[in-house]
Design brief:
The protein has one domain: Gcn5-related N-acetyltransferase (GNAT) (Aminopeptidase, 3-Layer(aba) Sandwich). Helix content is about 30%, strand content about 35%. The two termini are about 25 Å apart.
Length: about 180
């Protein structure tokens, strides 16, 4: 079973988010720029509190296919990485990431996602990781390529944002490819 264990990098700690992190969570999620490439929009503090409580509750649900690690820098929650779906039998999973715009372009996403990939391949023993990226999210496409992901296709008009259809770019990474990176 996949669990949210505390993971560490040179500058970051990836761990469970708690109620103590509510203010950082609201600050990060309330930034309109953060939602630019997501099907979501800014919510109220009360809605974010409900969302955070749901995340916390899911940590104890062994069957939950969505696991989220908070990305902490100097004890401040600045974003998250997640396993959004998985199949243990066929040894694949899908991941995602999100970072407060205040902390973008500083290598934090690269460091956090690299750590999660190492955990998935070396501890969880998956063979394949998938990531799906919105068509105009060039920073995430660049990050995926830098980490060794290969673009495998495009899901045309797969999501709606601001009443317009959006294409999704699908990337994959195999364990044997990761070992060469």
């Amino acid at each position: 079973m996949i669990q949210v264990k505390t993971l560490k990098t040179e500058r970051l700690v990836l761990k469970k988010i708690t109620k103590k992190n509510l203010n950082d969570y609201v600050e990060w999620k309330s930034n309109r720029e953060y939602h630019k490439f997501l099907p979501t929009d800014v919510k109220t503090k009360q809605e974010y509190e409900i969302s955070l409580n749901s995340i916390i509750k899911n940590y104890d649900n062994k069957d939950e296919p969505n696991l989220l690690w908070g990305i902490f820098y100097n004890n401040k929650l600045i974003g998250s990485v997640s396993i959004e779906d998985w199949n243990i039998k066929h040894k694949w999973c899908e991941i995602g990431w999100g970072l407060s715009p205040k902390f973008q372009n500083q290598g934090f996403a690269y460091e956090a996602v690299k750590c999660l990939i190492n955990y998935i391949f070396n501890i969880v023993k998956m063979n394949r990781i998938k990531v799906v990226i919105w068509n105009k999210n060039d920073a995430s496409k660049k990050l995926a390529s830098k980490l060794g992901f290969v673009q495998e296709g495009i899901e045309r008009k797969a999501r709606i944002k601001n009443n317009k259809f959006v294409d999704l770019y699908c990337y994959g990474l195999l364990k044997e490819e990761w070992n060469k990176v």
